[in-house]
Amino acid sequence: MAQDLNGPRLPAKSGTAKQLVVFLHGYGADGSDLIEIGRQWQPWLPDAAFVSPHAPEPCAGAPMGRQWFPLTFRDPNERWRGVCHAGPTLDAFLDAELARHQLSPDKLALVGFSQGTMMALHVGLRRQIAPAAVLGYSGLFVEPEASVPDPAADGPFARPPVLLVHGDADEVIPAAALFLSANALAKRDVACEWHLSTGIGHGIDGEGLRHGGLFLTRAFGLRYPA
Questions:
Q1: Which residues, 6+ apart, have CB-to-CB distance to 14 below 8 Å?
Q2: CA atoms within 13 A on the CB side of 196
Q3: Which residues contact 118 (CB under 8 A, 6 or more apart)?
Q4: Which of 10, 8, 24 is CA-nearest to residue 137?
Q5: pLDDT per position as a tens digit, 164-179
Q6: What are the pLDDT digits (tens) for 101-145?
Q7: Within its chain, how far is the Cα of 205 from the centroid?
Q8: Are 165 and 204 in contact (CB under 8 A)?
Q9: Measured by CB atoms within 10 angstroms of the end CB, which terminus of the chain is less buried, N or C?
């Protein structure tokens, strides 16, 4: 449930939150891993509150970290089962955070990294009211194997604007995942932009952060920074 998730927060720089940006960290990290990105984006998003919840489970592969779902890499459907299992908990947390700031669901943006991107895309595309944006770093759009039905495959699907950012030297989730994900989203009529960071592995570079921040600025209907 919503109370099961918590993590570091940054209040709106202006003092009044008009948007909510939720960071979803990767496997083996925790909410502290991404929250500082909010500080870098605050000059562009002064009315945005930021929150970076710790994933609900301790991580077997990184005892000090957290996971949205376990990974063994032995089962082709473990990612699908994982996002489906963790999705309702995250969805409830998003509703609670929006209520905390008295914001409507369309004032929400989800920003994920790696496993957090899988969660952002899965949950963001299944919200009853589409978020303003979904931004995914170094991750992928999880779909079930052909033998496993997807209850949402025939819609209704939320269709927020999506930006995928990936390093072309990613050794954990190859850059090909970006193009496979973009194609899968296109088949669902989800508008998807992408940026490939040259020479970057499984991480986020300054250019990727700049693209992401400007994407959120545009998605929230704000003036393009000077």
A1: 46, 47
A2: 12
A3: 68, 79, 82, 83, 112, 139, 140, 141, 142
A4: 24
A5: 999 999 999 999 999 9
A6: 999 999 999 999 999 999 999 999 999 999 999 999 999 999 987
A7: 17
A8: yes
A9: C
